[in-house]
Every structure is written in structure tokens, then in C-alpha cells.
Specification:
Amino acid/polyamine transporter I, 80% helix, globular, 0% strand, binds phenylalanine, 18 helices
């Protein structure tokens, strides 16, 4: 009833469109900066490899089996396995988490939108770290402006979701993702030539264990879920629109690698600029991207043009991710037959928009929504999905949905999903939360 992606590549691009977003370009560099670099990056990469990618396959598989919204797909596989209806809660929590993420995501996307205009107007010409910092603080102090761009971004998202993602999204991803890649490479080039590239490299990849806390490990794990759009049904919803015969394994590995490469390039572009600019520090916080990159654009040939293009592309990347934050809930409302697709989209976008307004006016709201979703709800969702697919679904069904009969890697994957991913997530959640709230 929702439509199917044209082919395997459209699915890959749409899933990549969901995965690659502010998480890679804005969040990854700034949390890396706040958590001391090297060791944090390594833990993050480990989480992607042994938790993120295997659980992503599990999540897509449930969607493909159920072929409906995450709530109803969970209901279907739960019945099929003869289990208690409470397992449907994975879907419910996901829909809620999606709206909660959207409530701060669209605020940050609004910042990116407003930077298209600031850069385009040449506001950053010749700036140094301090000036760029002041300009960003100016935006944070201007609630009306944030509200305006937050609303524009919400409307943009509403438009695509209302039109139906399988129709609206494939093209966007096909054309714009490669563009984003190219502009990131150009920025990387700037970082290498003009920034302190060696310092940036050391910061990102030197393994300094003493800089890493349990809280940092939890943040890295949570970010692995966030950046892969995992644990809240987004990728499950997209899996439901997947063609019948497509290898889930290869497809998801491609998505995971693309997402990781974009994050690493963003880091390699941003940190050399930070270290090459007096007045900038890696632990800048959420403003890192909005302060360091304008310094590069303000001081490079053609920077006005490239800067405008860059923030345009970041906005588009955020746009294709935001769509997947709302889609699970909308698909569910549509299935309930009480609302049209347009009506459902309006209702849910409005909810998220209100949360966004609250995030603009109180930074406590912004931080809490981010923390609750990334560090608790997404890992919990992933944990339950791993347990469900690893232990409760029939092996024959799992194998046939993976399209992996007789594939040698299937057993390894199943082992990871049964033992490694759940144990790791559970450990990190328990220790991380204990340290955060009690230690
Ligand atoms: N993965 C997106 C990003 O990195 C954010 C996202 C999270 C999208 C969860 C959908 C679901 O920007």
C-alpha cells in the first residue's frame, strides 16, 4: 500500500539519504571534539562494525518481512513468532523517538539553512575564529530567526513525506548525495593545504585512552545508532519498501560504509581548520561546524560560492534524513485508515515542530531530547531488535528474508546479532547510564 523502491540502488540511495545527514557533518565532529578525539573515534568505528551494521540488517529484515509501518510490521512478526504483543512496543518507541529527534534536528537544519544566506551574502569574508564564533552566537540569540528557518525546514520535510517517500526521495538522493561528497572533498583539500592537517589527523586517530570516559563510550554507541538511522524504525520503514530479491547484507554494508566515510571526511575537513585557526578549540560544542567551516570559506578563493553550496548541501542531506524521522509514524497513521497521507504528515510534523519551538527557547529541552533519544531510546530499540531477530524469529524466515541461503557469512552475522551486539549494547547502556546518573 505504500509503494516499493524502483530497484536495489534506489533503496541504497534512499537509505544513505536517511543515514547521511547532520549526524555525520555536524554531530560527529563536535562530539569527537568534546570527547577527546582518537579513542572516541575508534570506539565509534567499532560500534558501527559490530553493532550498527549487523543490527541495521536485522532492522531492515523485519521491515521487509512485515511490509508495513514499523508498528504494524512488528505486530506481524510478533504474531508470526507467536509472542506477546508487547514486542510491538519497539515500533511505538521508534515512532516517538523519531518525533523527538526531529524536534531538535529541524532546529539545527534551520541553522544550516540560515547559513546558506549568511555565506551567500558574504558575511564571512575574511573572518577569523573569534568573529565566526560571534556570528554564530548572534544566531543563537535570535529566536525569531531560528523559529523562521526551523519552520521552513519543517514545511520542506512535510512536503516530501506528504508526497510519499518512494516517489519523492529517490531522485533527490541520486543527484545531491554525490554533490555533497564532492564539496566535502574540496573542503578536505582546503584543510590539507591551509589548515594544520597533521594536528587534525593526530587528533582524530591517536589512541589516547585516558581521554575517554564511560559517558564517552555511551555517546559513541548512541551515535553509531543515530548516524545509521537505527533503532527507531526509520530503516525498518524503508526496508518495507524494498524489492523482493535484493541482498540485504551487501546493500546494508554499502550504506554503512558510505555513511562512515562521509563522517570521517567531515572530521578530516573540520579539525585541520580548527587547529590552524587561533581562537578555535576542538571542544567548541554544537557550534563547531558553524564556526570552523565559515573560517575556511571566508579565507579561501571562491569561498563565498563554495560556502553557499556547502550549506545548501548540508540542508539537503538533513532534509532527506528528516523525512525518514517522520515516515514511520505517518505510514502507521495511513494504515490505520483514519487519515490520508497528507493529513497524517501534517499532524506529525506539527507535533515535531512544537517540540522544535521548545528546543529553540530552552537549551535544556534541546539537550534532553538529544540525550534521551541517542543515548537511551535508540540503543534500547537496537537491543530489542537484535534479541528479536537473533533469538525469537524462526531461523528459516530470517535466512530467507536475508536472501542468504547457504551464504558462509550468514552464520557469522547471526552469531553477532545473537551474542555480540546485544551484550555490548546492554553493557554500555548499564555502565554508561550508571556513570551518568549515579557515578
Ligand atoms: N542518521 C541521520 C543523521 O545522521 C539522523 C537520523 C536518525 C535519521 C534516526 C533518521 C533516524 O543525520
Amino acid at each position: 500500500m505504500h509503494g516499493v523502491w524502483a530497484n536495489r540502488w534506489t533503496f541504497i540511495l534512499a537509505a544513505t539519504g536517511s543515514a547521511v545527514g547532520l549526524g555525520n557533518i555536524w554531530k560527529f565532529p563536535y562530539i569527537t571534539g568534546e570527547n577527546g578525539g582518537g579513542a572516541f573515534v575508534l570506539v565509534y568505528l567499532l560500534c558501527i562494525a559490530v553493532v550498527g551494521i549487523p543490527v541495521m540488517m536485522a532492522e531492515v529484515l523485519i521491515g521487509r518481512r512485515g511490509r508495513m509501518s514499523p508498528i504494524n510490521s512488528m505486530r506481524y512478526v510478533t504474531r508470526e513468532a507467536g509472542l506477546h504483543g508487547a514486542w510491538t512496543g519497539i515500533g511505538w518507541m521508534g515512532v516517538l523517538a523519531g518525533l523527538m529527534i526531529m524536534a531538535f534536528y529541524s532546529v539545527v537544519a534551520g541553522w544550516a539553512l540560515s547559513y546558506i544566506f549568511s555565506t551567500g551574502a558574504g558575511m564571512f569574508a575574511g573572518v577569523d575564529g573569534e568573529n565566526a564564533g560571534a556570528l554564530f552566537s548572534g544566531l543563537l540569540g535570535n529566536s525569531e530567526k531560528q523559529l523562521f528557518f526551523h519552520s521552513i525546514f519543517s514545511l520542506m520535510t512535510l512536503a516530501i513525506v506528504a508526497a510519499g517517500v518512494t516517489r519523492g526521495l529517490g531522485m533527490v538522493a541520486r543527484v545531491l548525495m554525490p554533490f555533497l561528497f564532492v564539496v566535502l572533498i574540496i573542503l578536505l583539500g582546503y584543510g590539507i593545504v591551509k589548515g594544520d592537517f597533521v594536528a587534525g589527523l593526530h587528533f582524530l586517530f591517536d589512541f589516547k585512552l585516558d581521554k575517554l570516559s564511560w559517558d564517552g563510550v555511551l555517546i559513541a554507541l548512541g551515535h553509531a545508532f543515530f548516524t545509521l538511522s537505527l533503532g527507531m524504525g526509520a530503516i525498518m520503514a524503508y526496508g518495507a519498501y524494498m524489492p523482493d530479491h535484493a541482498s540485504v547484507g551487501r546493500t546494508i554494508i554499502t550504506v554503512g560504509i558510505l555513511d562512515t566515510v562521509v563522517a570521517l571526511i567531515a572530521g578530516l575537513a573540520i579539525f585541520p581548520i580548527v587547529f590552524g585557526s587561533p581562537g578555535l578549540v576542538p571542544g567548541e560544542g554544537p557550534g563547531l561546524m558553524f564556526v570552523s567551516l565559515p573560517v575556511a570559506f571566508g579565507n579561501m578563493a571562491g569561498g563565498q560560492l563554495f560556502g553557499t553550496l556547502f550549506f545548501l548541501l548540508v540542508s539537503v542531506a538533513a532534509w532527506s534524513s528528516a523525512v525518514s524521522l517522520i515516515e514511520p509514524g505517518v505510514a502507521w497513521l495511513v494504515e490505520s485508515k483514519k487519515f490520508s497521507r497528507v493529513g497524517s504528515s501534517i499532524v506529525l510534523t506539527l507535533f515535531a515542530w512544537l517540540g522544535g519551538v521548545a528546543s529553540i527557547y530552552t537549551s535544556f529541552m534541546f539537550d534532553t531530547l538529544d540525550m534521551l533519544t541517542s543515548q537511551i531510546m535508540l540503543p534500547l530499540g537496537g537491543l530489542f531488535i537484535a534479541i528479536f531477530v537473533g533469538w525469537l524469529m524462526r531461523r528459516a524466515i530470517v535466512c530467507s528474508e536475508m536472501d542468504a541461503e547457504g551464504h558462509p557469512l550468514f552464520d557469522i552475522w547471526l552469531f553477532i546479532v545473537r551474542y555480540i551486539s546485544p551484550i555490548l549494547v546492554a553493557l554500555v547502556l548499564v555502565f554508561g547510564l550508571y556513570k551518568k546518573f549515579a557515578g
